[in-house]
User: Fold these one by one.
Assistant:
Number 1:
Amino acid sequence: MSGPNTSYDPVEVSALDPAAIDEAVSAALTAIAAAGSLGELKAVRTEHAGDKSALALANREIGALPPTAKAEAGKRVGQARGRVGQALKERQAELEDERDQRILIDEAVDMSLVPRRAPMGHRHPIELMGTRIADIMVGMGWEIAEGPEIEAEWFNFDALNFDIDHPARQMQDTFYVDPPSAGLVLRTHTSPVQARAMLERGAPLYVGCIGRVFRTDELDATHMPAFHQVEGLAVDEGITMANLKGTLDRLASELFGEGITTRLRPSYFPFTEPSAEMDLRCFVCRGTDPDCRACSGTGWIEWGGCGMVNQNVLRACGIDTDRFSGFAFGMGVDRALMFRTGVADMREMIEGDVRFDAQFGLEI
Ligand code: DAH
């Protein structure tokens, strides 16, 4: 059995050489300082403090040293490992701190940001105006009827007493639906709904119709090829022009303000006799300002047509003219909207810019 190797010289164990240990420490510290992320630091830890690192190797060598040399070498290696371990710990803390700061920035939620909401849609002001007019009529006890936008020529013209050669029937005024022989037009007014209502419901009858009508007009500030009308028809016993005037005045003041009345001027429509143009008391100056821009100083604004329903129309629609008489009126909804809101150019109403509609909200 051999005794302890007394001739063992620790200096010869290169892993325990102080210079080698210093070198291992400084290599480890440099690598630790250079580690830019926790992942990199993990690799550095394995390389410089792991089982196969120079310092771990040196540590293992200590066991083979003679007892006299163990304390010295143990101290040296222990201090070296302690420095590296401390540096690792500090860098780990720094990198974790950096990571946490980054997360706070990257994942920050700005509670002051206005949430992005889908903008609210709006009902179109023309539609709102129509609804408002319908409400007023219903409030007077009238019914609301509808008719087709593609209308039989007979309802649009013949039933309403238009002569066969009446200029309104010309292609340059009316959109005919192909083929023209089918006798279909895009209705040029809401008056055909009068004929439909009389045929369907008979007298007595109080009916309004609000809808879209079409004419071959060029689009400009005051004309649209598609626009809207409101039609009224009352058929009952003893109906006179006084009832017509009273109804129009009521509509006018409900729509444009108390005290706004109407004025009738003689006119001609095939479906009424007598017929009248209807003017509206200027709702801006009420007839008091000779320089008023809304009415050009006349005190009145043209709004539509009206009259006593022509007996030919009543007869064509099966109404007993010995017993019943009626009045009718028709005016522009778009024009009413212009009056009420000061919109000067009709094109704005149909461009479909939601910002225009939004100004009117749900009430006009
Ligand atoms: N339909 C006519 C037009 O579009 C307006 C009108 C005038 C309607 C007189 C009526 C009325 O009911 O009696 O110009």
Number 2:
Amino acid sequence: MFKALQLRQDDAGKTQAEIVQLEDHHLPQGNVTVEVQYSSLNYKDGLAVTGTGKIIRDFPMVPGIDFVGTVTDSEDPRYQSGDAVILTGWGVGERHWGGMSQRARVQGDWLVPLPQGMSPEQAMAIGTAGLTAMLCVQALEQAGVRPEQGPILVTGASGGVGSVAVTLLAKAGFEVHAITGREDNADWLKGLGAHTVLPRSQFEGQSRPLDKALWAGAVDTVGGEILAKVLSQMAYDGAVAACGLAASFSLPTTVMPFILRGVKLLGVDSVMCPFERRQAAWNRLLKDLGTQHYDAFSTVASLEEVPQLAQQIIQGQVRGRVLIKP
Ligand code: NDP
């Protein structure tokens, strides 16, 4: 028997979350079984557990879009019993049972070996959000954004992706300006490496097609009017890595930043990101965050706390990263 958080839909179509005891024969199909050490709470888990977004179509579902754990059974020649592995994305916790469980069964193709020297706690302190932050940093670097070109902006800075992005960019030598709606997090964000903390209200509302050119790069986790404002303030040749929609999936912008300043808008997706790029990102995370005090941006919670935390994350009330220990 093992314990899992399971989502069901009641007769009114409302998503209900409960802790259940399951047996191995309940696990979905897959060729690798993993004893889960940690999952983590991501924005998408918040949408799934609260039923806010149409994330889950097949019930019952075990949520948890990422996990780290130890292989117990494998029919995949690349993985043996005892191997430490990470999973993020591929629709796990959405279409395939996920990590908020003591046990998971998945496809070997979806796994990445835990980098040597990284602990399971560190891996899920990073999790999907941190991996996405790294993919954003790498996208900006590939677009030619360098610290000497000017300051860089991070939106939704107190969230999971935002807080890891602030940490990574500061470590890479950028002057990081963090946008937050929670100014009481200012000292915490500065502790992660932010140079200044800007109020979100300054970026809300309709923006002009072009504003004063301020930023060499940006990581955007929120979309909507805020992303439009950020685009209008990009310096010549600047680039924005866009990965999120915490404010809105809309983008009320114009072509002006692109055609008059050569601004680049770089889409970042972690879910279907190919293996080689994922592995490179995890290795870089190990290198860049090696000596980081991960508890500066992460806390640990139990499966029982997930329904409450899910409400909090979609209301923008969770700070940094939350590991879930099943
Ligand atoms: P979090 O909830 O941890 O962070 C989001 C942050 O955005 C909040 O902490 C808050 O920061 C800010 N925010 C929340 N609501 C609003 C609002 N209405 N208007 C403006 N800002 C708001 O989520 P994650 O960091 O886990 O994810 C961030 C986004 O990235 C989500 O949309 C998620 O779906 C997406 N994502 C995409 C991935 C991909 O592969 N493309 C992978 C992972 C995440 P503050 O209080 O500091 O303002």
